[in-house]
Amino acid sequence: DPPIRAALLANLNSKQRDAVLFSHSTALLIQAGPGAGKTRTLTARIAHQLTMGVQPDAVIAMTFTNKAAEELQERLVSVLGDGGKGVTAGTFHSVCLRFLRRYPDRVGLRPNFAILDADDAEHYVTESASRFDCQLPRRQLVTAISKAKSLQVPPEYLVGKAAEILSPSHLPMAGQVAVVYGAYQNRLKSDNLVDFDDLLLYGLKLYRDHPETVEHIRHVFVDEFQDTSGLQYALINAMAKDCMLTVVGDSDQSIYGWRQADATNARKLMNDFPGCGFVALDTTYRSTESITNVCKHLIAQDLSRPSPPSFSTVHGRGPLPLLLSFPTDIAEANFVAQEIDRLIRASHGMLKYGDIAVLARRNVQRDPVERALLSLGIPYKVAAGSSVIDKKEAKDMLAFFSLVIGVDGAVERMAMQRCVNLVHHISWKEYERPSGSKRRPPRKSINALITYAGQRKLGLLNAARDAVAKKAISQLVGDLRALLRVVDSAREEFERTKAISPTLAVVSEVLDMDAFIHREHSDKPHEERRRLQVVHDLIDMGGAFDARANEGGDHEIVRRFLDMATMGSGVGRGSGDLVTLATLHSSKGLEWPVVFAIGLEDSEMPSSIHGHSELTPARLAEERRTLYVGLTRAAMILEMTWHRKHGVGASQMSRFLRQIPKDCYIERKHLRLRREDWILFGKLLGRQVPDKVGLDGEYLPEEARRAEEEEISEKPERKELEPEVLIALHGGFVGAKSVKSSN
Ligand code: ATP
Ligand code: MG
């Protein structure tokens, strides 16, 4: 369709357009810094191909997160209408899963295989290990097996390749690890289960051994190419054999080295796809000059770069980023919450909560921030970081749901185990909990039920029914009765509505999840809120599937829902106008007008906690890139914070920030925004600038502002204010009017 095509191209600069139209060879690599429009160009290139008559089902797009895939799909639909539907977009895992669901038998899986999430996988590994008396600590064992899988090393070759997989001190245990690994694989096979690593391995096997399964594909697109692992690269290579391959990436943003990501994939690409085209984009559209400037200084510290980064920004200078320190993490968190409140007010409706993100290196760092946001009544959501549902509540509800719709074998066993424990836990809390005690009841084994079912050749759920009717298996009968009450109520609802969301709602209602969560976490309001959110998100997510239900058969939709829920798509994101809390890692590819990067003390950034205890130069460089990814998410306002007291000791500012020239940021504990700044934001966001904005108390004439900035940069000790003074200052932030007098 020519008019759509013209409109598509009109929204791009000339290099982006070249990349969209490129057709000189069968592969194209687009390299560019953050915000240069890589993802936008990739999307436009897909849309362009569709307007040229390429069929949607001939297009595969691989992104790093489910959210990115959803955004891509939305963009395509917004440009092309219904013509934009039907493109396969997802993470490497979900794309592989889609093909494996279609052709399970080709790789030796039975139909309806189930996916083992990380928790359950760990459980299986532990079980296998206990049979072989393996000395390696459980966590390391799980990691080692996963690493072996991602390096495509089968159990029988593990000993030979042990040096790549185990740490030197664990090398003597390679033999044991191999045995456990082998037993684990056998159990997965006999139980018809695949873990996350298997999804990729079976996918690779499918594309390689049965190329006919992917021969209809004409185009393969990959975003965030810098973070593809060796195995993922092999997948791309196998899938794109006779296709047009387009990959986009930025090696400065490579942050998954610890997951065997391989930044040298670009070189492999050039080898495997001779004549591969190359386009570099050099203009950044996301951030103001002030923000881009700080980010450039940060990444220029990486001495392995061939030259300092040189991209230019199309936007004006904008306000300088802030760099602030606080006595404690609580003071820091309170500042962030108050600053958000102040910004929203000062914007007179121009900024929304959804424009703001708070980023931290580690998940736990956001706890004080959550408390502070809650206490000011600021709505927020926690971005789903990993690809796995890590919240117990969601897994509990899914376990009940799978019993409701009917599962068998290992899946039924795991679900039954989980549900028995949950109802046991709930009732124990209610009736038997010794006053004041927080101890959990011990895990209840369902072995007696398994034996009972085996003797009668019944499925577990039916055996439970039988046992309850006959009052057999005394130690379990109460719990089984409670469990059946939930399953039966929910099943009635499912039969009536044939819909996922109301069925989940009944599960949650009969279990009284809300009350249970409240009781369990009443001392931690943010934790309670987070878990309630998970439950409600899961129900919402079911609703999204129900809405799509007429696209496929009932059962198909239900299974897809279970798959997606296991893989974590769409869960934990919340909807509406909310501040986002995320890790630096999970912020990749996203953008916000306002970003707070918190916890930037030297003990957290670089973080020495993630898996490795030693900060090698390579790890250090990766930590720096991680910070770079986070800071480059900011479009207009960037505030970097850290706190001085750390546990029992004191901390310093991150070494990465110490090297940034002082004139690139302000250390004053209050951002002043001029009318000009707001006008720039309006342009950037495409929003109307309210008349009042920047005029009341926020406004400082340019000279006064410069004088103040100079004064402050001459007296850096200002940041060492006493706690009392800080609190007084913070008090001033809430009302914009009182701000002038506070400095
Ligand atoms: P990252 O490396 O962080 O993933 P990216 O290179 O993928 O960044 P995009 O997310 O595609 O960058 O683009 C950044 C922002 O700039 C987006 O809001 C996008 O819409 C906008 N943008 C990109 N190209 C243009 C353009 N030619 N004109 C106007 N806006 C643009
Ligand atoms: Mg991108």
Per CATH, the class of the largest domain reads Alpha Beta
Q: Give the total of beta strands.
A: 18
The amount of beta strand, in percent, is: 5-15%
List unreliable stretches of 5+ residues.
Answer: 385-389, 712-743
CATH topology assignment of the largest domain: Rossmann fold
Give me the CATH architecture of the largest domain, please.
3-Layer(aba) Sandwich
CATH superfamily assignment of the largest domain?
A: P-loop containing nucleotide triphosphate hydrolases
Question: Which ligands are bound?
Answer: adenosine-5'-triphosphate, magnesium ion
Describe the biggest sheet? 6 strands, parallel
Choose one word for the global shape: globular
Largest sheet strand order:
3-2-6-7-1-8
**Total count of helical runs of at least 4 residues:** 30
Gyration radius from CA atoms, angstroms: 27 Å
Helix content: 40-55%
Question: What would you call the structural class?
Answer: alpha/beta
Question: Gap between N and C termini, in Å?
Answer: 59 Å
